[in-house]
Amino acid sequence: MSLLLWREDRSYLVEPGDRLETDLGILDIDADVTPGSTIETHLGTRFFVLNPRPTDLFDLLQRSGAPMLPRDIGLLIGLTGITNEDRILDVGTGTGILAITLARLGAEVVTYERTPEAAELAMENIEIAGVEDSVTIREGDACTVSLQDRFDVLTLDTGDAPTLAARSPDLLVPGGVIAAYNPFIEEARAVVNALDEAGLRQISTIEPFHREMEFGDRGSRPATAPVGHTGYLTTARFLPNNG
After folding, report:
1. What pTM was estimated for this model as a whole?
2. Which secondary-structure segment (H or E) carries 173?
3. Contact predicate 179/234, CB 8 Å
């Protein structure tokens, strides 16, 4: 697993034994360096050595597209109740940040990515995060493959979310949950319709909304930075039919 080199104005992901050349000087990272220690460049600039958290990985890992933001991932985890005992099917790997975060919780993740270049980059990120033993990445279209296993949780960040939502009763264990992330309300509605027709219960769609606060001498108010909307998160549960 990579380490985080941090100081107030910047941070880097490195491996023990690496050499890092920066405008603040050259860093030779010892092979036995441990989190909690400090190292200095040849110019005397000090960096702290830390274990990277998922939010650090979100900022520093290479990206192949627009990944889910940490706040949206946090809501997904909270609404689905994911634990370290869960097996998760994640469709739409992308950068791999969702799969990495879920694996860091202790869950077992099988993730599908249809684009070869994205799958390769995601695998590199998964290895950097040190969770390759907990994440199985499969290159291909989850809509067209035969999935024999059932999972505790199904996460969807893909344009094919309605198709997979319709298959969710065949993919989830009884009591299992699905979470679909869609950038447009029309896609979210299509997912809701598919879940309803498939007989899932407790269907709910929310818009995660973010608004930072500013505290100044004149008073406190919401920040004017244009953050706001990122997408829509739909959750549902596969429950047995009582007849």
Report:
1. 0.87
2. strand 172-182
3. yes
pLDDT tens, 55-101? 999 899 888 777 788 999 999 999 999 999 999 999 999 999 999 99
Q: What single letter denotes the amino acid at residue 219?
A: G
Q: Which domain holds residue 11?
A: 3-52
Burial of 180 (0-12, 13-18, 19+ CB in 10 A): buried
Which residues in 140-178 are b (16+ Cβ under 10 Å) and which e? eebeeeeeeebbbbbbbbbebbbbbbbebbebbeeebbb
Helix then strand then coil, % of the chain, to nearest 5: 25, 35, 40
Verify that 75 and 179 share a domain, yes or no: yes
Supply the pLDDT for residue 226: 62
Q: In this structure, is residue 242 part of a structural domain?
A: no
Q: How far apart are CA 209 and CA 228, in angstroms?
A: 5
* CA 74 from centroid of its chain's CA atoms: 9
Q: How far apart are CA 7 and CA 25, in angstroms?
A: 13
| Cα gap 193→32, rounded to integer Å | 54
| Shared domain check, 150 and 167 | yes
Distance set, CA 133 to CA 71, 82, 129 (Å) = 25, 18, 11
Assess if residue 150 is contained within a domain: yes
Look at residue 84 and tell me if it is in a domain: yes
Count of CB atoms situated within 10 Å of the CB of 236: 28
Residues 124 and 38 in one domain: no
pLDDT at 208 over 60: yes
